[in-house]
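From the thread on structure requests for the teaching lab: each student submitted one protein with a one-line request. Submission from student K.M.:

"Model Prolyl oligopeptidase family serine peptidase from Billgrantia antri, tokens only."
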Amino acid sequence: MKAQPPHRTPATAPRTAPPPSPVERFRRGEDPEWHWLEERDDARVQAFLEATNEESQAWMSPLESLVERLYHGHLARRELAVHGLRTALDHYTYWSETAADADYPVWWRHPNGSPEEASIFLDLQARATAEHHYLELGDMALSPDERWLAWTEDTSGDERFSLYLKALPHGEPRLVLEEIGPELTWAEDNTTLLYTRYDATQRPDSIWRLPLGEGQIGEPSLVLREDDPEFWLGLGKTRSRQWLVLESASKDTSECHLLPALVPQQAPRCFRPREKGVEYGLEHRPGHFYILHNRNAPHFRLDVAEEGDLTPWQPLIDHRHDTTLEDVEAFEWGLAITERDHDEAQVRIRIIEFDAHHDARRDERLPLPESPCSVMLGDVPHFDSRRLRLREESFVMPVRWLEHDLDNDERLVLKSQPIHGNLQPADLCNERIWARAHDGERIPVSVVMRADLAGHPLPTLLYGYGAYGEVLDPWFSVARLELLARGVAFAVAHVRGGGDRGEPWYLAGKLEHKENSFRDFLAARNALVEKGFSDGERIAAYGASAGGLLVGASLNLAPEAFCAAVLDVPFVDVLRTMENPDLPLTTAEYTEWGNPDEADARKRIRAYSPLDNLSPQPYPALFLQGSWHDSRVPYWEPAKLYARLTEMGTARGPILLRTDMAAGHGGASGRFKAWHDNARQDAFILWALGLADKEP
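Reply posted by the TA:
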């Protein structure tokens, strides 16, 4: 039975018909969209969510033993006691440790060269255990002299952060501010901390200075305010430690302001005024600023400007049609640049070293362990360091951290993620195939499976995201091993709207091109079947957040393409959300989805918004997950999807809704609860694929 919120009448009420329940109102056409679920303070809403949680729990009860096996199997495969890499700053060496039975890390440090003097300076496990059921660290920042620690934390999941300060080594944490943004940056004067504040829609609209002196905390003062509701502010500091960079950005336009890091009391100076549709970011080496931008260069180019004269920009790396420049990091010796090859959908790290005349004396790309894979520059705090830290992983290679010596090109593996149990990385294989989209475009699809099952059509879990230019580079998952061990193939559709094939890939899946994302996802599904990787009767889909939009819209287009789907905090009420500028993120995302005040944009969004396009079709079994404190995708979006699909009654399987009443957009903050939640979703997937009784 479908859960219904209770209604009551007083004991002394006259004997008349009780008021209609929300379900009855729906049947009578009084609330066909279930918008009453948006009334957070209405007691019926929590009652409704609690009833659906009970309904979901009752349906899942026969699978509870499977959930526990998946959960404990996951624990048995991973290293539970985790020691982070040690990083030496000017005075101390820092690292984190997470105990085998802990949800959160403890942060340690010792004076450089004196490991025997190690001490704890931030114990997140103790803070979570003693004070909060939910704890998310927003940012952690050490003053340049390493005498002050500042951090932000969220204790509800709504992404509203509190600022704490602690004098090191033994000072007590002091709550300084509440309801602020997560980001923090210290100026180089050791007495000025910069942070962001939100406006009413939870947009970081202002940057503030917080002065400290002799243990006293002064009054905050405004540094910069952004009045345009489509822009938000962010903080940073160049690795040279000479400049604070204050960035104002929308989804397609940016503008940077500079503050001298040693004199943060000055007024910020605009580097170059914003220009509609132009994004740029800054890096610095003494004497030069490096500007990564897309002005007349949709795949981005790199220019350089003299520090004393910012007006002329000279080309350093020209725009290329087959490569997107994604990031640049400056060092004393030169630049480390992240590039993405469009054809291979592969990222590389490029090293450029300069001589005294600013001419390149070295220009080469670092080697890859395999392709496709993920590689990124790790934390390298020192401007003069010639030893880079790299993080590498793939679908079949667990995460490893390396140190690459630029002087001799030798590589030292600092740490590799150990994997325990009966399924090792060597037992896996992965392939990159190409699907043909409706318009002829080639869509990359990644597949990972047990090597001994390769060549056979397998039950498959297909994952996708496809928004904001986010890249789904290969990643290793310990939890995924529980599915692979039971004979499931895991596939990723690198659809347009993501950044997997560079900036043009993103542009081809947003605004008026958004329909490409959904068609690409279905093309990926069909290619897996046609090429013999997947059993067409046993393919489940998974999408989270904007990936929930991808999967939800795909189900409306082809409900019989999948036997089941998991939609985790799914963005499915797109039109109504974009019509409400008072919600967090709405105005900032007009350049991603469109502004429905414009007729063409409204028509376009209306044509694909999952909730607006439901019809009596044979939808597959669905597991919907929401979070009560989610400020990005409110709990009512999956709740309304559940209500309307259940009322429609045409699904081929169960429609389940589970709402976490103590979490936000990212789900549970503690790792053990998060892993257990993952096991619950995987149990549903295995049931849908007909593998609930299959053991590894």
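TA comment: DSSP finds 13 helices and 37 strands in the chain. The first strand starts at residue 82 and ends at 83.
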